[in-house]
Amino acid sequence: MQELITNDLEALSKEISGKCRDILRWKKDDRFNIVLAEFDVDKLHIIFSELKKYFINSWDANTIKSSPEYIQLNSERYGRLHTDQIFCTTNSDNNTFIYCAIWPWSDGLTVSIRLAPYDKTIPEEELDKLREQFRGWFGL
Q1: Is 135 exposed, middle or buried (0-12, 13-18, 19+ CB in 10 A)?
Q2: Is residue 4 pLDDT above 80, yes or no?
Q3: Is 18 exposed, middle or buried (CB count within 10 Å of its CB: 0-12, 13-18, 19+)?
């Protein structure tokens, strides 16, 4: 993997993790091997306001089918998008980007955010290495 890509991704990851430091507590998502935060739904507006500065592309249950195939494949890792769920990315025109899955829970009280890096040019086994580095940038 190119060092420049990793350095840019590291800087962006640290900036994102720092922006919501007082609101979000990041942890490793053992189920998907990525970064996860869970919070009360009343904080969604504040957190989304911060995150949308970075995650410039977004899709919902109605628009995900019009997204590029690699976006659809990544969103499907977490299940089908339902009402009020959003799948976002940093600039996905780049080969390397970060995606963000925002999942309000059915209880109406809690929201999960999952973040992970993606690179269109590297094989899955290298993506695992990239995800491991990514978790480290979030202190995990």
Answers
A1: buried
A2: no
A3: exposed
